Amino acid sequence: MHQHRFGVLPRVSTLTLGGGGLGMLWGKTTFEECVATVHAAVAAGITLFDLAPRYGDGKAEEVVGAAFAGQLPP
Question: Who's near 29: CB < 8 A, 6+ residues apart?
């Protein structure tokens, strides 16, 4: 996965995972499927997640928190 500078942040992946799907806004899905999506994204090298508060009224953040068990990934 290509990475680049993004302001003052550490280098981030060129691709990002949008939080709308993680917030279950774009159709029927389960919490478990969303967590699995986060794991697959990280395995593919994605390090940037778009988690706007309105993505499922906080569900996207809950999914990412559960995927990482409250810890940042290594």
Answer: 21
Q: Is the pLDDT of residue 73 over 80?
A: no
Q: pTM of this prediction?
A: 0.87
| Cβ neighbours of residue 40 closer than 8 Å, sequence gap 6 or more | none
CA distances from 40 to 26, 35, 47 (A): 19, 9, 11
Give the integer Cα–Cα distance in Å for 59 and 17.
14
CB count in 10 Å sphere of residue 49? 20
Q: Are 64 and 49 in contact (CB under 8 A)?
A: yes
